[in-house]
Amino acid sequence: MNAPTEGLHIYCLHERERNHRLPLALRANAHLYLLDPRQRIIRAIALIPSSRFSEANNRLFDAEKVRDFACSYLEASSSTSVRWDLFGIRYAMQRLLVGIAAGAAATELVHRTLIDQNPDAELHPSTKPSLSRYGTPSTGPDTIHYENHALHYDQARRVPLWSLERLCRAHLDGPANRRTSRFRPDDHVPKQFQSANSDFWKSGWSRGHMVPAGNNKHSQSAMDETFFLTNVVPQNIDNNSGYWNLLEMKCRQLAKETYDDVEIISGPLWIPEATDENGKRFVRYEVIGKNDVAVPTHLYKIILGRKGDRLDLASFVVPNRPIDIKRPLTEFRVPLENLERIAGILFFPRLDRNSVGDLCATSEGSCDLSLKHAGWIASRSIQTARDVTSLEREWRRIDAQGFLDVVPGLEEAYMKKKREFEAAEH
């Protein structure tokens, strides 16, 4: 599977810059490098004379064509091999040297595919890459890659448009602890387009992960990266801790019990809901903080499960407000094509949809939210209350979300915790 849009770029370093940015072992003759979205050099893939790139300094190239060329050449070569992972930016090389023939071919290809800060030119043939001497407008990188997730960041709304992760059993256990993680801006996003923690303070909205921290227990660094604000939207706190949390737990259950792995895409939506007396529809949403972070009206989640050669999919859209946990998940199910039309995003563009099954029809309860998980959420909110005031607040939230109707023993747990606080006061 692949990210909704490609984010890998090929970057050419000018002769006078490379000594300042390359590891010593790579300073000799290599000038064409693969970089991840944070612009860290990964490794040279070709040895190209620097004179051939004198005019290409600090230019971005069509990643898809160069990657496909590199893969096809290296697979056919007896001297070098390459392996690409889910997001296409990590690879293992048996040898570094590619040879003069590869360098010449890559040079010709790069010159043919040179584009001016416009990685979508291939999708839009009418685009004229050389129209501006100074670069066409940029909305930032198509994809920002992290250790175990990738996303497209909306610089105008200061939220991710989509966040993609791949979840398997191995990710669900490990030493990672979210208590050591901190919400923070990603400094690789220009400061003028960042959101800040202060935007959320006293706003009435929580910081809602699109890729959950709990899906990365295998790695502390992967968990920490889910706390970048590039992965966060303003989310109703009851939705975040209630229904949406149950949906995230359902994804973990599917990865643990049903599928070999699960790919999940989550993100915000802004859907017309208001209609005036003339029948006109409007999209109205709040913005918070000095950075005007956009509050979505809805959230979506696409789940693609793989079991051997079998693929199953389901997609859901939920309102960004409190939802009674007794409401069935299937009530919020939408066809993927409808979601794509609303979001303006083509999800899993290389997926053969004729071969994909219905995730909700694979087994009984495959799209039912777990009462066991609901009980864990409600009990945890009671036990983690810091004082009587926060306990009463959590109790009202538990009642409003419908937990009392489906989880036994909550009232006893609440009264026990309340007595503990009262005893401590005396």
What would you note in describing this structure?
The chain is an alpha+beta fold. It has three domains: 9-112, no CATH class; 146-367, Extracellular Endonuclease, Chain A (3-Layer(aba) Sandwich); 373-425, no CATH class. The protein is built from twelve helices and 17 strands. The protein has helices at residues 15-21, 63-76, 100-112, 197-200, 220-225, 237-241, 243-257, 336-343, 371-383, 388-400, 403-406, 410-425; strands spanning 9-12, 32-35, 41-46, 60-61, 144-145, 149-154, 159-167, 206-209, 232-235, 261-269, 274-275, 281-282, 287-288, 293-294, 298-307, 310-319, 356-358. A seven-stranded mixed β-sheet has the order 5-6-7-10-15-16-17, sandwiched between helices. It is globular and about 75 Å long. Residues 1-127 have low confidence and may be disordered.
In short:
The protein has 426 residues and is of the alpha+beta class. It is built from twelve helices and 17 strands. The longest helix has 16 residues.
Q: What is the beta-strand fraction?
A: 15-25%
Distance between the termini: 60 Å
CATH architecture of the largest domain: 3-Layer(aba) Sandwich
Query: Rg, please?
Result: 25 Å
What would you give as the CATH superfamily of the largest domain?
Extracellular Endonuclease, subunit A
The run of helices and strands is EHEEEHHEEEHEHEHHEEEEEEEHEHHHH
Mean of all residue-level pLDDT scores:
74
Secondary structure layout plus pairing:
Elements: E1 9-12, H1 15-21, E2 32-35, E3 41-46, E4 60-61, H2 63-76, H3 100-112, E5 144-145, E6 149-154, E7 159-167, H4 197-200, E8 206-209, H5 220-225, E9 232-235, H6 237-241, H7 243-257, E10 261-269, E11 274-275, E12 281-282, E13 287-288, E14 293-294, E15 298-307, E16 310-319, H8 336-343, E17 356-358, H9 371-383, H10 388-400, H11 403-406, H12 410-425
Parallel strand pairs: 16-17
Antiparallel strand pairs: 1-2, 1-4, 2-3, 5-6, 6-7, 7-10, 8-9, 10-15, 11-12, 13-14, 15-16
